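Let us practice reading a record.
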Amino acid sequence: MASVVLMPPRWRPEAIHLKKIRSRIRSMADAEAGGVTRKEDIVIVGAGIAGLATAVSLQRVGIGSVVLEQAESLRTGGTSITLFKNGWKVLDAIGVGSQLRSQYLDVQGMVMKSEDGRELRSFRFKDEDESQEVRAVERRMLLETLASQLPRNTISFSSKIRTIERSKNDETVLKLEDDSQISAKIVIACDGTRSPVAKWMGFPDPSYVGHCAIRGIGIYPDGQPVEPKVSYVYGRGVRAGYLPISSTKVYWFVCFNSPSPGPKITDPSILRQETNKLVQNWSSDLLDIIKSTPDEMFIRTPLVDRWLWPGISPPASIGNVVLVGDAWHPMTPNLGQGGCCALEDSVVLAKKLEQALKSRTISVEDAFRSYGSVRWPRIFPLTIRANLVGALLQMDDPLVCSLRNNVILPKLVQLGPMLEHTNFEFEPL
């Protein structure tokens, strides 16, 4: 395999891509003026975690791309994402780990509690795995850090896809809402759980799993009081968790059973009221964190996933179109692996495309098929496991909850098997 020489990050992007950027700007102007189809080699759909990480991973192996984002700017809303050692390993490989690591606390362990505050079990991560690393990262900072690694004009905002078609020359034509269109040799869809590209490829919508989550970040200007551990609190049909992000911020969630996702609720006063009602008699630690959360930090989401059944589900790619992250394998957050797996996807796919476009040892189609065959055995079991863990923890039967809190959690659960899935090896970029 040919070696890739990495140049200093301060000047590498501009030096390599200046000519391409000028050409892209001219083609965009032509398209706006006369409806000319804009041509691109590689188009990444979606500037979320998966899309930006894929763009940065490709750049690390010397492959440029353009990223389409339907919003007017980076969608930096949301709370935080918890990354385990596999996520940090990828961030280090693409050159942003140290920058992010320095801003967020090292979470040293976890504690499980009942709703009245009684401790059921506790662990230290490094007692089980010396290499383990757990930190909660604000989604906004993660996106902005990834985007900062890309050349100017890589991300094309206000670029919402209306239709997708195949052209006669086997390229993919993306028609946008503003009536412009792009003909792409390669399309990498990172457009989330409701991915239009995944739907075009024949994937069904993700399935609602029967519970919703309300999330937020408590703000403590004078310093937050929470020890550096993940705290999980288990009730009947309701569970919660919280962990420190930094010296002044604490991330929390409350997950509750609901027969349907219900209407989308964004009114913070309603979300605060709903959250308080769910945990009103729980330990004061959690209630204080919720009370310290600004209105704009409350977010409610239904939890969904998609099981990639062998021989039944469509493949991860069709021709020169491939899915990455939640667009392919949405999973519930019960293992903290949704974001980590999207990051894993990005480096595996970049390495496969390097073989196709730089070394030319395989075709793009074969590279995408190889990516799918490598990732599926990891993604499918994790999706199922996350779903089953959530189902167990959300049970509301009094007898089952008593068994969980008095036998399963304090006596049977072992941390080692719980963290085994965070082991992940990949070829260096």
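A brief commentary: DSSP finds 13 helices and 17 strands in the chain.
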